[in-house]
Each structure stands twice: as C-alpha cells, then as structure tokens.
Specification:
about 230 residues, Jann2411-like fold, two-stranded antiparallel ribbon, binds zinc ion
C-alpha cells in the first residue's frame, strides 16, 4: 500500500471517524469521501489529484498519466457509488431512474477495466483487472463492493441523510437503522433545528411538520443530485 493515501485530515475526517468501515471497505469509503460537501472540497479535482490518490493506494503507478477523461470517469464513478450508498440509507429517497443510471455507469466502468479472476498460492480467489491504470483501479473498488455484498456488510455502508453532508459512513448499529453519519454532528444539528422549528410553530404541531423532514412526514425527500 505504500504511502498514506491523501484524505481529509482536519475536523471533517475526525468528526466522522466513528463511522469508519472495516477492512477493505474503508478504502471504498475513503474514495467516496474524497468529496467533502460541507467544506466544498474535492480531493479528485484534477487529473494530477486523481493520479496522486490512486498511486498512494498502489493502484496505479506513480508515473501513470491521468487524462481529463480519466478524471471525469473517476469522479462520475464516485458519484454513482455515492448513489448506491444513498440507496442503502432508508431515510433517503433515490429515484429509480437515477439508480439505474448509476448502475449502468458502474457496469460500463467494469467492462472498461476488464475484470479477471486470480487464484493466489494459498488458494484464495481474487477479483482483479487485466488492465492497470484508472480502469483497473475502479475494478478494484467494485471488487471491494462485491466482497462486502457477499459478506452481507454492504447494507451497512451508507451516505448521511443530511443534504449538506452526504458523507459515507459505516452503520454499526444492531438493526442497521442509522441514517446520520454521526449523531454528534449531523444528527444533533437536525435535532436542534427541529427543536427551534417546534418552538416557532407551536408545541402542539406534529414533529414531522416542524422538522420539515419529508422523510419523517412520510413523503420522500427530494431526489439526490447525481453529482455534487
Ligand atoms: Zn452527516
């Protein structure tokens, strides 16, 4: 794995540390979290940045030339993954069409990378890619998703329901019911807003109306944007 991969190391990362996924799934999570909605920052905002991120994982060579098309594909892939993780959050409504579009994008990426099975000396079967470069790296991310799905862990990785957050977190709750990346941040902020609204609309008003949370009121929240 080599060097420590670039990641947000300030408050945004520390704030969400509680929701870190186990094993390889943390790599997929870090990839999705290369976009920080709250800080309006993107670790993959240039071909060079994509190259730095992927080579820090040992997924591409350091001298790998990353084109603007590679960068666009990588960020589109990331947002398609984010949509899948949003669909894992019961508090978020993801339009079927958007989900189908994301699935098609990921399938196209899978074909480009030419997936290949490999059997290690100890007999472990692994999914890798025939090709290296960006396409091969994206296959590795899909292989992590495949592994997590086979192990029944996939439904635990979600994106936060807060519109200004959408951070990928791992839900360790027994019933897999968490919907905020962290109760200490997004969850408590929503509670505070709900408290203030309840006070402004009157104590007798239903919580859902006061919260203005369409999910709570039984209506789906607005669909997720396909990209940040
Ligand atoms: Zn959040």
């Amino acid at each position: 794995m080599g060097r420590v991969p670039p990641a947000f190391t300030d408050g945004s990362e520390q704030r969400h540390r509680a929701g870190r996924a186990p094993g390889d799934l943390a790599l997929l999570q870090s990839f999705v979290n290369t976009w920080d909605a709250e800080g309006g920052r993107d670790l993959l905002d240039s071909p060079a940045a994509v190259g730095a991120w992927l080579s820090a994982h040992g997924w591409t060579g350091e001298s790998e030339e990353i084109t603007p098309v590679d960068q666009r594909r990588t960020t589109e892939f990331r947002e398609a993954l984010r949509l899948l993780l949003a669909a894992n959050n019961p508090a978020l409504f993801v339009e079927e069409k958007a989900l189908a579009r994301a699935a098609a994008q990921l399938t196209a990426a899978a074909r480009r990378g030419r997936p290949a099975l490999r059997v290690g000396a100890e007999g472990r079967v692994e999914l890798g890619a025939v090709d290296g470069g960006v396409d091969g790296a994206l296959i590795r991310l899909l292989a992590i998703a495949l592994h997590a799905q086979a192990e029944g862990r996939w439904s635990r990785i979600k994106v936060c329901r807060a519109q200004g957050c959408r951070w990928a977190f791992y839900d360790r709750s027994r019933g897999r019911t968490a919907t905020w990346c962290a109760m200490a941040t997004c969850g408590s902020r929503a509670k505070m807003r709900s408290y203030h609204r309840r006070r402004s609309v009157g104590v007798g008003a239903p919580l859902s109306a006061a919260l203005g949370d369409p999910g709570v009121a039984g209506r789906p929240p607005p669909p997720l944007l396909p990209s940040p």
